[in-house]
Amino acid sequence: MPSLPASVREVRLAALPDGLPKPEHFAIERTPPPVPGDGDVLVRNRFFHVFPALRTLLGGGVPGAPYPPLRPGDTLFGAAIGEVVSAPPDTGLRPGDLVQHFLGWREYAAVPAGQWTPVDGALPDPVVHLGSAALAYTALTRDAPVRRGDTVFVTGGAGGVGSLAGQIARLLGAGRVVGSTGSPAKAERLVTELGYDAAVIRGAGPDGKPIAEQLADAAPEGIDILVDNVGGEQLQAAVAAARPGARFALIGALAGQLSPGLPGTTGPVEIDSFQLIVKRIEMRGFGGMDDDAQGRWAEPVGGWLRSGELTFPHVRIAGIENAPQALHEVIGGRHLGAVVVEL
Description:
Pfam families: ADH_N_2, ADH_zinc_N. This is NADP-dependent oxidoreductase. Residues 19-341 form the Enoyl reductase (ER) domain. 26% of the residues lie in helices and 24% in strands. With 343 residues, the protein is α/β, with parallel strands linked by helices. Helix 2 packs across helix 3, helix 2 packs across helix 9 (291-307) and helix 5 (211-218) crosses helix 6. It is globular and about 65 Å long.
């Protein structure tokens, strides 16, 4: 095995926050490098994803969700791209190969068998694997499939999922795409940079209109598809604007996850169920990335990226020491697109 540094860094939870997490709730700790067990692949992480749903894990998690809650002293985790340092012969991996795994927020990781995926050349930039193109493509082709000419509404249009979902909806044949976001500046960027036809602003817009009225103006004939990353009043507005037979894909509940007054583990919203019935709205929680879905998204997305038809909005923040601040900025809505830490 190649020689390793005497100590490596990782980000740990120092204290549970009362409300939204801040950088002081985390600590950069030094620890001996991991010792790989039988079957483990030792990787040096190069990039990891900073995602706002960590707030839910800090609040105790949600029963049935795939990830455990975080407690003080725990190392954070999340999607990462790592460079292989050593691997068992039967893996077919060689030093220098790239793999994707879920042990981010640390400089080195010993990744157990079955918990890593080789990064091939399907995408022009390996960092795209840390974005949400897979979620956006799968939601719009499986959970709420786009039909040519549909009007699509994407909540959280400036986030990691939304910044790609609007573009992908258009490439799949949508006739009109509307996104929601939190500020006039981001609303302008959705239209000028990401191909949205219109953008609405959560709460009351600059003219004082609530989001339901803004959406009615932006999609006067109603919406056929919802890609919902937010919930709350934006989901209510989508129900009001839905056309008969509308298809809703629910991916996130950021309105609850990022509310200072809630623990981050619930997404309460009051919906008029009569509207669901009368309009025959199909509402489906995102079905996850099964093997079939994993095999279908990379080729079309890679082709669109190479042709320039699709862009990958993201921000790279250098240094693991800046990761807690990056999370604070993500939760505060400072950035557009995905946020990754580069090591």
